[in-house]
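Exercise: predict the fold of this chain.
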Amino acid sequence: MFSWLYWYLIDWLTAIMAALKTRLVSWYNNAKHDSARPSFDIKEDLWLLGRIYALPEMAAKDVEFRAQTQGSEDDDPPSPSQSPLKRLSGLIREDFESKFWFTYRKEFPAFAGTSRTNDVGWGCMLRSMQMLIAQGLLVHLQGRDWRRNGSDAAQEFEAQLLTLFLDIDDDDSPLSIHRLVAYTARRADLGVGVYHTPTAVAHAMSYHINSATFQQRLRAGLDSKSSLSMVVVVDGLLSKQQLYDYLTDPTKASGLILLIPLKLGVERMDQAFQQRLQLCIQSNLCLGFVGGKAKHALWFLGYNGEDWLGLDPHCCYRALDQGNLSSQWGKIEDTYHTHKPTSVSQAKLDPNLALGFYCANCSDVDVILELIGSRESVGLPFVSVLA
């Protein structure tokens, strides 16, 4: 009897400690994000998924603007908010805020076969991949320059896209963390409570995007004529003809997400790869990459000087309820979008990552293969391209 009581108490205390740890980690990460104040190096351009924000040029114009306003005898001088640098900062903020930010969530339906109702402490790679794929869907359906403008049409689109990722094991949400973890548990011996690698999550996401369930959901909720496929590069070998076949066969796809798991060094990223990775981010076909530090993944979508800029999934918020998302719009605005990127210096970036691209036609394929496979571009190639 005492033995049974002993183990019961041990299990109870373990559960209490796990719950306390979840609360403390969530509180710390949320507080850290809320108090963050994004700052960029104005001596260096900022690149964000194919868009350049010329900070040095605007900083120089800012000096002229301030000199003119200070020396002006006008009764109604321009507001400081009209300065070139302030206006550019507003555009950068708007660009970041229009990306989807998936973070740790709590109080969602338990994963199958478990009592766990959150992914705090282990789900960051899954959340980072969801962000990258959401960006691919956004480009596929609306184009790179889609912005959240508050219109009814924009909100309806956003609600339909978010439904694909809701934290529930349901066919309406084929890209949910529940579906991804179920796949990795079967195929990669990972599953609930275990940190995932970029490669494992890439294959899980590919499996679900290429499924009939996802294609039906895509056409029913977002675009009746659309189809999307996903290819994951294996062992650094990429077939150009395979990508052409996907995009020229109307039964396969009207768009393609290409995901490339990479190991760009041993403990740190080899300097020979860094320039090529920056070159990829400068392309409007790039969807960024997932990676970061060991067991601390982010979705990286830009860089500024020596710093990579990413959206950090380590905050924790309550999961959305399945059903009418319009009634939860305040929660969506507050917890699924952010203008506060996290900076990670190149020297601290883990060499294991997964790089994404979107291509709509064969010309896009040619551009991407030049970026990642050409030996004439800067740095070492990422893949070997087969004819």
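Check your answer against the key: The chain has a mean pLDDT of 88.
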